Amino acid sequence: MSDFLPTGIELSYLAAASLFILGLKKLGSPATARRGNLLAAIGMLIAIVATLLNQQVLNYEMILVSILLGSIIGTFMAQKVEMTDMPQMVGLLNGLGGAASALVAIGEFWHSLGAPEALPVDSLMTTILGVLIGGITLTGSLVAFAKLQGLISGTPMTFPFQQPFNIALVVIFLAGSGYLLASPGNVPIFLGLVSISLLLGVLFVIPIGGADMPVVVSLLNSYSGLAASAAGFILMNNMLIISGALVGASGLILTDIMCKAMNRSLTNVLFSAFGKGATAGTATARGESGDGQRLVGDHRPIHSIDSEEGAMMLGYARSVVIVPGYGMAVAQAQHAVRELADQLERLGVEVKYAIHPVAGRMPGHMNVLLAEANVPYPQLHDMEDINPEFERTDVALVIGANDVVNPAARHDRSSPIYGMPILEVDKAHHTIVIKRGMSKGFAGVENELFFQDKTVMLFGSAKEMVAQLVSQVKQL
């Protein structure tokens, strides 16, 4: 039995790792994402049970109490947190993962202080790495959470000589790490390394704007995986090493996808303070020119309509493509959007949804919201699939999206979003834009789409305006 137990544990870890890989594969599609999440959860359950069978576990009571407490908190969060708050919760959970890994590293170092022999060099290096990655992940995720929750400003926060200061901190951390390797029991130096890692996490995220949070969330998710792998090497646990590596690799791949969707490099996202000059307020249209036109800013006319006119355009169309954005998420309008689509389909209108990869505040944000509203998966189309359809679309309905539908990205070389792949809604026969006002997007530039002859503006809250459209379409 004693010989079989270690083998059984390792085989259980192998089964769990296989379920993790299958789960990640199925998470790549909205239609299979729930099944993938379930498979990964089963894999984690197997890994936990196998770990509890390990004879090195000394205190089952504390572990079981912790599992019970964590399960209660997790169940409460799953029940109470709104789908629109998923970015914040994901950011917070990333931070907790980093904290767990950092605490493992700190605990290992503290345990070594009372041991007859100092930690081997390789183990100490892994401990230092766990502290660095875990600390950055913890505080960086907490800052991202605060930005997404509105506890602090979502605009980039910078100060003079910020990057040289960050570089100096990294150099000090490396020098301190070298000193600790030479003097393994030096507690003040170790605590200094912990403090620097926590400070670096804060400085890493504060110069990044709110609209770049999809990249930040996916990158911090990758960091949490790398921190878990480091903890696995510290504890000599193969399951932690494998699962952490999977999370780290998938997070990096997703980060790369997000950057390509914005036509920006990762270094540009992290260090350029992009969006610092964006207008935060809601600028309203100014001036009247008659015939439903208003004059905005430099006196370019826009065409404004009411919900009755919008309902007629949608109800008598053959095809409608709905383009959701962060404005839909903020207004929590996803259920009203689904009801509008149902009413249009009742009239024989073909309805599709166009999803931009970086719409919202986390990867897949729009997919999550629309899934909560039970929008059929076949109606969701990514950018590459839907763009060729716009030329044959009667009406494109843009709900709270801005930069991701700005035609300037295709031709204006002076625009900060030039080269960014966009949803080409301007090629539709008509476009309706639901927006509170004429505020600029995160990039701080006017959206050319709003001033085109084929575009009409429906001003107001997304939830309120869509509800009015539903009411008017029902009367058709």
What's this, in brief?
The protein is α/β, with parallel strands linked by helices and 476 residues long. It folds into three domains: 80 residues; 191 residues, no CATH class; 189 residues, TPP-binding domain (Rossmann fold, 3-Layer(aba) Sandwich), CATH 3.40.50.1220.
Which descriptors would you attach to this protein?
476 residues; alpha/beta; Rossmann fold; 3 domains; six-stranded parallel beta sheet; three-stranded antiparallel beta sheet; 17 helices; 9% strand; globular
Report on the architecture of this protein.
The longest helix has 29 residues, at 121-149. With 476 residues, the chain is of the alpha/beta class. Helices cover 57% and strands 9% of the residues. Helix 4 (86-113) packs parallel to helix 8. The model is unreliable at 277-291 (pLDDT under 50). The strands form two sheets. The protein has a six-stranded parallel beta sheet. It has three domains: 1-80; 86-276, no CATH class; 286-474, Rossmann fold, CATH 3.40.50. The protein is built from 17 helices and nine strands. Residues 10-471 form the NADP transhydrogenase beta-like domain. Its EC number is 7.1.1.1. Belongs to the PNT beta subunit family. Keywords: Cell inner membrane, Cell membrane, Membrane, NAD, NADP, Translocase, Transmembrane, Transmembrane helix. It is a multi-pass membrane protein.
